[in-house]
Amino acid sequence: MNEALDALQKTIAEAEQTVDTAISLVDRLQAENKQLRAENERLSADGIHTCHDQCPRYACVLRRERDAALADVERLRQALRVLPFKDGNKYE
Ligand SMILES: [Zn+2]
Which residue has the higher pLDDT, 84 or 15? Predict the structure, then answer.
């Protein structure tokens, strides 16, 4: 019985580490997004144009990639939020 509990606690500890790693990745992505946003602002400042979903301008491609990455980050954050072990060691 104790072995099963030990194994469960080990699994939980490993899962917590995985979540911490994922959160670090999210933080890094958001920092990169901030840089891209600033670069996008700079590049966008060079004129008004007719933009569309497949607009090939570098700034517009970056903006679409940024929006997609932000959506991914938000989905990941939501997924991490529902994991029970992030609120402490509920299993102990
Ligand atoms: Zn455009």
Answer: 15
